[in-house]
Amino acid sequence: VRLPKLTLPTFDGKVLEWTSWWEQFNADIHLNEELPDISKFSYLRSLVGGEAAQAIAGLALTSENY
């Protein structure tokens, strides 16, 4: 699947930024039925930093962990 280039913001764990970040991630990645869950998880891992990245750092890159 070839996807158009998207520019998504990074989420670093700041609660006040969660809603707008999630709405964009949800629309562009999470609800995309053409993407397998492992790809969605890969996108998720690449788009989080700070405390958010630490929260998922120990999870293996698998479909089940998404």
From TrEMBL:
Name of the molecule in the record: Uncharacterized protein
Source organism per UniProt: Capitella teleta (Polychaete worm)
Pfam name, any one: DUF1759
